[in-house]
């Protein structure tokens, strides 16, 4: 399950980091200080993705037949 969770985390973390980046760049108040907020938004995206990837991996592994 750890391998599946890691693969999901890579994809989901990059997606959430990109969403955070888009929010920072699209909001004028945040875009003025984008050099400060972009790394934090990317880090937050990857950290938030951890519990979701574990949850998704457990659901995927639960539905797959055992070999």
Question: Keywords, please?
Answer:
88% helix; elongated; 3 helices; single chain; 67 residues; mainly alpha
List the helices and strands and how they pair.
Elements: H1 2-26, H2 28-31, H3 34-63
Explain this structure.
It comes from Rhodoblastus acidophilus. The chain crosses the membrane at residues 38-57. There is one protein chain. With 67 residues, this protein is mostly helical. It has one domain (2-61). The chain is built from 3 helices and no strands.
The total of beta strands comes to 0
Q: Residue-averaged pLDDT, rounded?
A: 90
Query: What is the radius of gyration computed over CA atoms, rounded to a whole number of angstroms?
Result: 15 Å
Cα-to-Cα separation, first versus last residue: 14 Å
Question: Any low-confidence stretches, pLDDT <50, length ≥5?
Answer: none
Total domains, how many?
Answer: 1
Organism: Rhodoblastus acidophilus (Rhodopseudomonas acidophila)
Protein name: CTP synthetase
Keywords: Membrane, Transmembrane, Transmembrane helix
Summarize, please:
The chain has 67 residues and is mainly α.
């Amino acid at each position: 399950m750890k391998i599946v969770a890691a693969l999901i985390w890579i994809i989901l973390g990059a997606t959430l980091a990109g969403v955070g980046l888009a929010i920072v760049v699209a909001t004028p108040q945040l875009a003025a200080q984008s050099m400060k907020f972009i790394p934090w938004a990317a880090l937050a995206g990857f950290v938030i993705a951890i519990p979701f990837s574990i949850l998704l991996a457990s659901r995927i592994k639960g539905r797959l037949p055992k070999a």
